[in-house]
Design brief:
By secondary structure, this protein is of the alpha+beta class. It has helices at residues 23-39, 83-95; strands at residues 4-11, 51-57, 68-72, 76-78, 104-107, 117-118. α1 (23-39) links the parallel β1 (4-11) and β2. α1 (23-39) packs parallel to α2. The longest helix is centred in the N-terminal third of the chain and has 17 residues, at 23-39.
Amino acid sequence: MPQISHHLLLCATPTKALCCPDPALGAASWDRLKTLVRELSLDTPDRPQGIVLRTKADCLRICGDGPILLIWPEGIVYGGVTPERIERIVFDHVMGGTAIEEWILRRYALSGSAAPTNN
């Protein structure tokens, strides 16, 4: 069974326009995320650092500033995710280990022991 490095959950096709008022932006961000993960072979099961999973979500319960990207296991939520931001997030955060502080909306403790914090 492959090890999982990161799971990227992108709220890109919300059923309510409140989250992401421009559906085309959500779709473009999702397309860029899929392409990058594939082009960089981040989805390869034998990747030494672990596989990067991606999921298109309908709702991450953050109503605004979308598209929204939640990165597991760090519990970091990015807002205003565009195709250009997806690139930097993948290169800097996912591959480089450095979060992009100015784009972070929230941080969650995914262990379930702490409440979310707003940034």
